[in-house]
Automatic annotation (TrEMBL):
<protein>
    <recommendedName>
        <fullName>TauD/TfdA-like domain-containing protein</fullName>
    </recommendedName>
</protein>
<dbReference type="InterPro" id="IPR042098">
    <property type="entry name" value="TauD-like_sf"/>
</dbReference>
<dbReference type="InterPro" id="IPR003819">
    <property type="entry name" value="TauD/TfdA-like"/>
</dbReference>
<dbReference type="InterPro" id="IPR050411">
    <property type="entry name" value="AlphaKG_dependent_hydroxylases"/>
</dbReference>
<dbReference type="Pfam" id="PF02668">
    <property type="entry name" value="TauD"/>
</dbReference>
<dbReference type="GO" id="GO:0016491">
    <property type="term" value="F:oxidoreductase activity"/>
</dbReference>
<feature type="domain" description="TauD/TfdA-like">
    <location>
        <begin position="35"/>
        <end position="319"/>
    </location>
</feature>
<keyword id="KW-0560">Oxidoreductase</keyword>
Amino acid sequence: MAEPFVETRIPQQKLYESKPFPAVISPSLPAPSLPLFTQTITTHKPYLDSLLHRSGAVLFRGFPVNSATDFNDVVEAFGFDELPYVGGAAPRTSVVGRVFTANESPPDQKIPFHHEMAQVPEFPSKLFFYCEVEPNSGGETPIVLSHVVYERMKEKHPEFVQRLEEHGLVYVRVLGEDDDPSSPIGRGWKSTFLTHDKNVAEERAAKLGMKLEWTEEGGAKTIMGPIPAIKFDKSRNRKVWFNSMVAAYTGWEDKRNEPRKAVTFGDGEPLPEDIVHDCLRILEEECVAVPWQRGDVLLIDNWAVLHSRRPFVPPRRVLASLCK
């Protein structure tokens, strides 16, 4: 094991096939400097890559990551390519370099489990979260292993899962013209497609495989799919629950959107409500929610793990970075 840091255990971890989830890395020496930490990441990249592959998520705790700029240095040290946030639903603000705010929706709202940008063809393979200001209470970012969810759903609802595998899902979201920070899916079409020009927005939507229909109020209805709801994780040789079904069905709600219409089977048939809620229960049962501490950096393999956000009492500031 690499000298400058060690794998540690925390009470919230779960064991899957005797592997801790998430893996937790802490400094082995007291008070390492940030340059030493970033240098160690670069020199021990193969080890960290294999740890992420084995565990699905790695929490770095106890390192001197004190600002958004420090966090950006940590992300850069890993050397993954950046993924621009095009086509995602969350209201976000760019902070520095490759770093932006995590979903800025109100603190009393929970954000349901999802794979990051599962509803668009180009999604990040990895994402980083960083706790700059730890929450007063709540505000965890629960994580759950996607293949475990798939296996439990297949065991309990085999016909439903077979239908999902055959037909996939269609996602429908109505966007306002501008951002609506009161909504967890409040990103307007201008910032979703990074343009003020409707023709450019249509081209960018088409590249993502989305259809755009303009509304009378100046907003846009996006129709995505049918796209697969189950993917095959080639690197781990297993099927994963790679969709935003529960998130869309239970959470895509604001003055423009009604959640039950937000996601259907690929053939347009509605999803059975009881099964969607059962899936939500499985996600909650299998998840791990580690309370944030200031300076925590959480690296998630987006192929392996879904994440969510619990409501919180402010202040809380968690920043994010997406990688190809």
